[in-house]
Specification:
Elements: H1 24-27, H2 34-44
């Protein structure tokens, strides 16, 4: 099994507030979830939303 190789240019590090828990990406409300906001921004560069 080969290891994934991610360059520093491809990596996105998000600074979080000190009061955030490591479980916040899983348990925080969507409106207050920094991880989900950053993930949405990241994915919007690669995925086009479906037409409704």
């Amino acid at each position: 099994m080969a290891r994934a190789r991610t360059s520093e240019r491809e990596a996105l590090l998000v600074d979080s507030a000190p009061e955030q828990s490591h479980l916040d990406p899983l348990l925080a409300a969507p409106g207050r979830n920094l991880f989900l906001r950053r993930l949405r921004e990241f994915l919007s560069d690669y995925v086009t939303p479906p037409v409704r």
